[in-house]
User: What shape does this take?
Amino acid sequence: MITYDMNMRGGMSKYEYLFQCIRRDIQSGALPPDFRLPSKRSLAEHLMVSVTTVENAYSMLVSEGYLYTKQSSGFFVCRRPLPPPQADEPEEEEASPYRFDFKANRCSLSLFPMNTWTRLMRQVLSRQDPVLLQTVPFNGLYVLRQAIAGYLYEYRGMSVSPGQIVIGAGTEYLYGRLLQLFGPHNVIAIEDPGYKKFADISLSYGTLWDYIPMDSEGIQTDRLKNSRANIVHVSPANHFPTGIVMSPGRRAQLIEWAGELSDRYLIEDDYDSELRFAGQPLPTLFSQDSRRKVIYMNTFSKSMVPSLRISYMVLPQPLMELYRSRLSFYSCSVSSFEQYTLAEFISRGYFERHINRLKRHYRRQKELFLAALGASPLAGVCSVQKSQVGTHLVLHMNTRLSDAEIKRRASELGLHLAMMSDYCRVPSLAHAGQAIINFASIDPEQISLAVRLLEDIFRADIDLKKSS
Amino acid sequence: MITYDMNMRGGMSKYEYLFQCIRRDIQSGALPPDFRLPSKRSLAEHLMVSVTTVENAYSMLVSEGYLYTKQSSGFFVCRRPLPPPQADEPEEEEASPYRFDFKANRCSLSLFPMNTWTRLMRQVLSRQDPVLLQTVPFNGLYVLRQAIAGYLYEYRGMSVSPGQIVIGAGTEYLYGRLLQLFGPHNVIAIEDPGYKKFADISLSYGTLWDYIPMDSEGIQTDRLKNSRANIVHVSPANHFPTGIVMSPGRRAQLIEWAGELSDRYLIEDDYDSELRFAGQPLPTLFSQDSRRKVIYMNTFSKSMVPSLRISYMVLPQPLMELYRSRLSFYSCSVSSFEQYTLAEFISRGYFERHINRLKRHYRRQKELFLAALGASPLAGVCSVQKSQVGTHLVLHMNTRLSDAEIKRRASELGLHLAMMSDYCRVPSLAHAGQAIINFASIDPEQISLAVRLLEDIFRADIDLKKSS
Assistant: This one.
């Protein structure tokens, strides 16, 4: 008869221990399929436990598919399915295969205030406050929306109420809700070059879109006027990847355009305005516009860490009312633990300190990178387009290499490199030879090495320059 | 001249301290709009700091919109916008207004393993592992999908690979992705009564749906055949709110129906199959179906805590390949911190222990509730529909009150109560007088009081019964 030492069960209840012992033997095959178990009574006597104990263990084993019963003839071991294949995509969690990733736009782990975050998270959890487990309002926790409203007032000069804010699991998620809010019968204008992913998102929601070219002042509003688009997505504070800050004139034109028709709206993507190093910030379109036609979008993926999926949007009051009536049935998609933690992080001033730390770090990163570039022969064959915002530079290369060839050589050298043409609808000569350098994730000690590797790509151009 | 005691700055750098002092005075109004600040040099001499320190502080104040410059005439205080209104929706984070909530289907905080969770979360964060900050694969962390695959094998007898699993921020989120995967030219069949929210979700994605009535065996497959629906949403393990477990015959018919046409699919919502107290579990449709037509859905909101937004779906291989090609551009919507924590929680066996604890608790809750009901005069005017799964009961009341009247009286007594008709497309007499009792969130000590309050609703029926 099967035998288990009930004294080995530690803190476990008898029936749970028995349940686990038998299950282990079924899994290991020690108890083969269709093996008949002893009757409850006899096993109870054998193990010197109560019949109820065995009864409970057996019924749990039955309810979890380890045992089956035949009427009045006892309990038998079920056939188990094959174990699941676990061999696929084994490399998935491995680190990036690149030595230097100029494409990934993320900060290094060392900058994330892990200890503070953990402490706050622990405090939040240990409060044992029932509110923690309450279902979160559709638009996110009030305390977090309040903290964000305060932050927007302090740092972006925006006066919004917590009731206008919707918190969601990432910007893409919020774009999806927005497209649903507007419905499919709209045409989205996307900057070219620009955030091409918005085209994928629009497609997946059955919404049409149109690319509108950029010039040095930002999106070309005259081209916009001649398009069918009625909703525009722009990043006026720091356009990626061009680094262009939209000119005041262009902003005024955009706002005027939006005001002309009731179905026109602007989506302002302010994704990394926090990381402004110097110079006077232009106000947000949201606060410049008096007709309530601007939806403001921002994320903590850039300022905190990408793996923290918390973004938010600010809707003008009329749109917010529409959102409430149409989409508030959707539950909030962000864990309340992390919402409470972030709310504390912001309202206790940690976020501000963190941002200032990031700014100092990135400013230094940029200076080091520019210095290394200046000292390198690369300087002779490229011009650097600087900007006072964000964590990337554009190198205009004076090269004979095609963008494809540049990327091929880069990846041979262990560099992950994107070119301006990657962000264009149609790669054109006008955008050729422009390398996008995200320096955020490069270790300061390694910058000169990274630049030397960039040199190797353009060796021929450098030699040509020397010989001339 | 403005004066600050630089010795008060603690660990702060001089320029940051100066920046914060001046900002505070601007916010307080001590430095009014258009006030002209001292020149860098003079303030530097006055405070006995370097000019660079003042320069840095001023440029930060400019870049954050506190100061503006006039060429060669110095730095001036900006006009600040009004502080944001914070007064709206003040009650939002308050606890439920009800004494007893029979509608909310959530467990009590006391059952959530807060300490274990916090400890694991702390361990995950303190690993300081760069992988923590890596962008998560579109379908979720491999370690979590691996843990889930193992769990499904152990407890649901399902043999799936981690590569078939997609993790998302809540079931609603995953339903949205599914609807996008299938595209708008499908018709969803929704059980009636049943999960009406799926109709809202379908509407928001522009997909048509049709309600298919239930009978005691589950969804009526003959009605399904005569509908235009090609995708069916069902909860075979425990239908909410009827508590019906789908019969083997009905399952076979459903699977056959799905196999007949290439565009037919079944969505199996297994939301609370973990909470089975006794009796033999029927296998999942997913594992019964050989034609790979079943999408399996499950969530941790029910088994862990609703405010933890982690759900997952298992796709048949062909659909998974389609998902990869069409929707993998969407980033994963769940924080990697919580994904790692949950993966640890499952793979170290805490999840199993937690589930067993929940089962014991809910089984006891149910016994207590049934005992209190049996001892109450209510027993004379209602019949209880029991089930071996889940955390709710259906009371079939022998009453003269309308459902609306029952709910009105309930809320007067501080009870949050839903009726079967609330989950029906069209309230019919066949579904009248059926009260849905979610006992999960009721404090065991309070059960008899809760039952006494239920009595008061049906006092007239009870007296009538006595007098007859």
Observations:
- Chain A touches chain B through 103 residues (CB under 8 Å).
- The first strand of chain A starts at residue 67 and ends at 70.
- The mean pLDDT of chain A is 88.
- The two ends of chain A are 93 Å apart (CA to CA).
